[in-house]
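DEPOSITED CHAIN:
***
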Amino acid sequence: MGKQRVLTGITTTGTPHLGNYVGAIRPSIEASRSDSVESFFFLADYHALIKAQDPALVRQSSKEIAATWLALGLDTDKALFYRQSDIPEITELTWVLCCNAAKGLMNRAHAYKAAVQANVDAGEDPDFAVTMGLFAYPVLMAADILMFNAERIPVGRDQIQHVEMARDIGQRFNHNVAELFVLPEAVVSDDVAVLQGLDGRKMSKSYNNTIPLFLPEKQLKKAINKIKTNLLEPGEPKDPDDSTVFQVWAAFADESETARMRAEFDNGIAWGEAKKQLFEL
């Protein structure tokens, strides 16, 4: 049985944070070490232009993300790691696929429909501030996938539709032009770890509540001290399963250290002490 080809895109619109590491980087790198898969990872800098109009920021983010994945153990002898914009054939294929993709299919894309609805609700023209980048985004994603005949595409639930659209576009091309493309399958894991941010919500650049990876020591300590906690006093038992401090601890500690900290919470460890130990972990 041959290896399965797995493709993962990484949008270059910010600095990697702890939530990225726990939810995506660590499991992806571990999966890439399997002898049963052929892994492709790419920096989606063309996709980034939909949200980030400053080329300097996209370039900086590309460097930070590439350095992060390599520093955290991505083995480029076992996985192909590339920048989207370095492969001109991807944009060439995007145009070819645009000439085969149905506009009605693009009209049904969740991101485009959400933007139109937001404009209607605000009393604006339905397509106010909607760029062709946003509208045609699914075709570029289809080109990313079909270019390498990727079979499995790990995505979040909000991206399933785009993989299905890539499949539809590839199938249409195979029927109308030539049987060239493998039809991809979305792979959604229900076990993806979601790390809470400084305010208790999901850690996300959108919420401005992240703890960036590789912070200098003083800035890391300051960020940890900003983690939101409740008003329970030292000596009062605390629920570890309702604590961002404990959740971050458990994401990086081994089993014995996690069990020890759970006991500390039951015994009423002070929040300041818990944060101090998290910083020193």
The chain has a mean pLDDT of 94. The first strand starts at residue 4 and ends at 11. The domain at 4-103+131-187 is CATH 3.40.50.620 (Rossmann fold).
